[in-house]
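Dear support,

Our group has been running a series of protein-ligand predictions, and this particular one with FE3-S4 cluster is the one our PI (initials K.S.) wants archived with full inputs and outputs. We had some confusion internally about which version of the output was final, so please treat the block below as the authoritative record. The input we submitted was:
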Amino acid sequence: MDFYAEDANIFEGFNSDTSDNRQKVYIETYGCQMNVNDSEVIASILTTNGYAITSNIHDADVILINTCSIRENAEVRVFGRIDLFGQIKKNKPSVLIGVLGCMAERLKKQLLEQKKVVDVVVGPDAYRELPILLRAAEEGQKGVNVLLSREETYADISPVRLDKNGVSAFVSIMRGCNNMCSYCVVPYTRGAERSRDPKSIVREVEELVKDGYREVTLLGQNVNSYRWEESKGMIKHFVNFSDLLEMVALINPSLRVRFSTSHPKDLTNDVLYTMAMYENICNHIHLPVQSGSSRILKLMNRKYTREDYLARISAIREIIPDCAISTDIITGFCTETELDHDMTLSLMQEVGFDFAYMFKYSERPNTKAARLLSDDVPEEVKTRRLTEIIELQGKLSEQSKRNDIGKSYEVLIEGVSKKSQDEFYGRTTHNKVVVFPKGNHKIGEFVFVEILDCTPATLIGKIVNE
Ligand code: SAH
Ligand code: SF4
Ligand code: F3S
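Confirmed final output from the archive:
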C-alpha cells in the first residue's frame, strides 16, 4: 500500500455553514489506503444520518479515530492521540470519542477499560451501526460493535471523497485477508477475505468518471485473489482480478487505473497481459517481498521462495518491459541471521526496486509468529539491518529516478506543490512524483513532462508540447 500508519489523514470539512445545527464529526485516519477508504465510507454513513464533517477538532461534537494495528508504533501513536482527545473532552464534556478500525477490532471492549474517555468502539465490518451507537452514547450508554462479517463489503455505499482535488480516488474491491502470514494482524482485525460485486465496482468507477475523477486505485490486501462467482440459471460465471481490471480499464480510456496490493504467490500472467494490453493501466506493481531468504519466507508463511519471487519479476520484465516495481520489506524477523539479511540485500539489488517501504519486525499479540517463534533478533541488530536496507534502497531509488532524466512522461496533475505555489505535482505511470512549473494548466489535466533532474524523493521536470 502507498503509505502507512505513521501519517495521519484528516478529513477536510465540507458544508461548514455556521448556521448549520447538525452535529459535527472530526475523523482522523491512520494505517493503509483501505483505512482511508473506510473513513470515506464512514463519512458517507454519518452524513446520510444527519451529521456534518469538520476538519476542526475543537469544533467537533464527535471525534473519531480510525486506527491501525500493523506495528506496535502505530498503536502507541493512537493511544497518544486518545489521551489528547481526553484533554479536549475535559473542557467540553459533551464530546463523544470513538475508536474505529483495526485497533478497535483487536482490543475490543478492553479499549473502554483502558481508556475511560472512549465512548464507542467499532470494528471494520460494523460501521453501519455507528449512528445508532453514537445516539446511544449521547444518552450515556457506551457501545462496542466489533462483529466481523463474511459478507459486508459496503458495496451500496458511495464513499465521501477525502481527496478534495477530485482527481484520484480509492475503490475497495474486496475486504479481509485469508493469507495468514505469520507476523500479521490483518486477518484477525479485518476478518475473512470477501470480494465485492463487480457491478457495484464498475458503477462506482463510472460515477467517479462522471464527477471528473481521472484516476482510480483498486484496493485490497491481496487483489490478485479477487474472485466473484455468479450463477445465471445453470451456468456459473466467474470474474477474476484480470477480468475486473479489464472491465475497469474499459470504462474510459483516459481514466488511469492503479491497484494495490499484489501478493507474489497470486500475481498471474493474465494480470500482466491485461496491464500490457491497456494503455490506461499504469505500469507499476507493488509486490511486497518481505525477505530475500527462502528460509525466512517459509517461517513467515508467505508461500513462495526467493526463486519464485524472482521468477515473477522476470515475468513482469518480459510481459511489461517498462514496469516500475515497489516492495515492502520486514527486517529482523524471528531467527533472521546475517546470511538471511544479506540475501535480502542481494535480492533488492538483483530486482532494483524503484521504491520500498521498510520496517523492523514488530511482534503482534496472538499472531502465529508471536505464539510459536521467538522475537530473538536484538533491537540494535534490527536497527542496524534496517539502516543498511534503507541505505541500499536509497541508492536504488535514486538510480531509478536518474534513469528517467531526459525522458518524457504523461503526468496527471494532482495538485499544487507544497514547496512552491508556481508548481504542480503529479505522478508518472511508474507512480513517481514529479514537480514542474504550472504553465497554463489545471489540476486534473494530463500533460507531458520532460524529466530534467531529481531530488531523493521527487523528479523535477518541465511541461513539453504546450
Ligand atoms: N496485504 C499487504 C500488506 C499489508 S500490511 C501484503 O500482504 O503485502 C503492509 C506491510 O506491513 C506488509 O507488507 C509488511 O511489510 C508490513 N508488516 C505487516 N506486519 C508487520 C509486523 N508485524 N511487523 C513489521 N512489519 C509488518
Ligand atoms: Fe497480512 Fe499477509 Fe494478508 Fe498481507 S497478505 S494482509 S501481510 S496476512
Ligand atoms: Fe493497519 Fe488495519 Fe490497514 S492493521 S495496515 S489499518 S488493514
